[in-house]
């Protein structure tokens, strides 16, 4: 008698990233009919959910704050590659792409992810508790690099327009890269405890006590699938961007709205992971994800586009306009007042989300 053994069925978190990658290859740089766009959108959502799952597995294996850093750096490296590619292909029309994308990422992370995490954590536990020392250091780095890279070009006089001269651009790129390196070292080595999650009772959580960590083999597999999922997220978002552009143009919205939509799609994995962490009373992990993503975005994008600008024909416009400068100043002021106490009520979360809503409204109706 022959006994047949059933092979284990592949989990959806394995199947979906592979399908998203195949779909990306088949649709890249092709005009897509509406049914295919719908299919791509479904695959995009699935890849986002798969990325969150595999990020959780990796984070559980390596612990905090390394887990938050893995997701933030992975999505940012892929996003930077996409930005540089688009700028190289877009010519002078893409001169402000890096600025718009980075600023959208800063506003979505510092107000959207942070605000939503504080609101969810405070509603669930009455008050959201986090470490003001680590969070304050992270936000100070984000505010400094953002101001040096995106605000100063508007006021410099060496070159016309909102752009740096070559020496100024070199300084901005170098300082962004150095501060990002110091931020990672501070977060993961020298002052790691300042970035560990804190419960509402004030207890620092160094390890998860209620679940066994995954094996090293499973963690490496999840890391590979995480990268594959993120390639699918960013690539499929780029694939459907022409459809989004046509939809935005058909309703009379400005072209800047397209960048906001793409940024929201790309940052979806961090957003979902941050909310899930807040629901588990790990608000510090949520803030690590939000501020870490903002720091990675600007700390890696500015040096990358600075190097790429050497062979691009058009100018590199980095300076923000007056409206965005005001929103950035408001974000810095509100975030400072939020971080200082180390505790937040639903009010602080709602304030951050209101600033994000103002940014989205002005992106639609400048």
TrEMBL record:
One of its GO terms (cellular component) is plasma membrane. The chain crosses the membrane at residues 12-28, 34-54, 66-87, 102-123, 135-156, 168-186, 219-237, 257-279, 291-311, 317-340, 347-365. Residues 36-188, 222-364 form the Sodium/calcium exchanger membrane region domain. It is a multi-pass membrane protein. It is found in: Membrane. One of its GO terms (molecular function) is potassium:proton antiporter activity. It comes from the Bacteria. Coiled coil: none annotated. Pfam families: Na_Ca_ex (PF01699). Keywords: Membrane, Transmembrane, Transmembrane helix. Its main location: membrane. PANTHER family: SODIUM-POTASSIUM/PROTON ANTIPORTER CHAA, SODIUM-POTASSIUM_PROTON ANTIPORTER CHAA. This is Ionic transporter y4hA. It comes from Peterkaempfera bronchialis.
């Amino acid at each position: 008698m022959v006994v047949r053994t059933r092979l284990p069925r592949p989990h959806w978190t394995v199947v979906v990233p592979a399908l998203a990658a195949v779909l990306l290859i088949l649709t890249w740089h092709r005009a897509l009919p509406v049914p295919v766009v719908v299919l791509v959108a479904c695959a995009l959502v699935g890849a986002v959910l798969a990325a969150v799952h595999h990020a959780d597995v990796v984070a559980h294996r390596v612990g905090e704050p390394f887990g938050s850093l893995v997701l933030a750096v992975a999505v940012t490296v892929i996003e930077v590659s996409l930005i540089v590619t688009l700028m190289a292909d877009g010519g002078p029309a893409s001169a402000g792409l890096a600025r718009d994308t980075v600023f959208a990422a800063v506003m979505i992370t510092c107000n959207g992810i942070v605000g939503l995490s504080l609101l969810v954590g405070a509603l669930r536990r009455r008050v959201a508790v986090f470490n003001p020392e680590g969070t304050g250091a992270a936000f100070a780095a984000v505010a400094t690099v953002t101001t040096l890279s995106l605000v100063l070009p508007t006021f410099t006089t060496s070159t016309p327009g909102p752009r740096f001269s070559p020496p100024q651009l070199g300084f901005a790129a170098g300082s962004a890269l150095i501060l990002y390196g110091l931020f990672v070292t501070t977060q993961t080595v020298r002052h790691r405890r300042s970035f560990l999650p804190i419960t509402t009772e004030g207890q620092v959580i160094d390890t998860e006590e209620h679940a066994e960590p995954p094996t090293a083999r499973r963690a490496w597999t999840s890391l590979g699938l995480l990268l594959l999922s993120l390639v699918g997220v960013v690539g499929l978002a780029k694939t459907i961007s022409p459809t989004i552009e046509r939809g935005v143009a058909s309703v009379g919205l400005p072209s800047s709205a397209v960048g906001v939509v793409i940024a929201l799609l790309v940052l979806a994995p961090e957003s979902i992971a941050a909310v899930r962490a807040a629901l588990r009373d790990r608000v510090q992990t949520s803030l690590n994800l939000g501020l870490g993503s903002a720091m990675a975005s600007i700390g890696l994008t500015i040096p990358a586009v600075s190097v790429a600008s050497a062979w691009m024909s058009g100018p590199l416009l980095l300076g923000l306009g007056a409206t965005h400068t005001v929103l950035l100043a408001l974000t810095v002021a509100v975030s400072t007042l939020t971080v200082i106490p180390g505790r937040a009520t639903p009010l602080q979360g709602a304030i951050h989300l209101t600033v994000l809503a103002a940014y989205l409204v002005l992106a639609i109706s400048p």
